[in-house]
Amino acid sequence: MITAIVQIKLSASVTIEKATSLFADAAQNYRDTPGLIRKYFLVSEDGSTVGGAYLWESQEEAEQLYSEEWRQTITNKYGTEPSVSYFASPVIVDNLADSIIIDD
What we know:
Blueprint: E1 2-9, H1 16-27, E2 36-43, E3 49-56, H2 59-65, H3 68-78, E4 83-88, E5 91-94, E6 99-102
Antiparallel strand pairs: 1-3, 1-4, 2-3, 5-6
């Protein structure tokens, strides 16, 4: 499994209420994304950066989402290009499910 961190630096800060509204509107779009296990919508404390932390089955599946079309959509919506960083996620602690997941 891998985690992708997406960051979008905004030209104008957003409040947590505005970010929540934007994210709630977009959340349904990720419900059936192939390979996506979990997505966290993120907003920095000062509201100057938004983004997401995504847990994926594989980087290849993640890259299917982060296409040029997706990048252009984000750039058009927020006025700045997103950055995407990948991290191996070999062990995950899930306290809600009371489990530890070890990637084989």
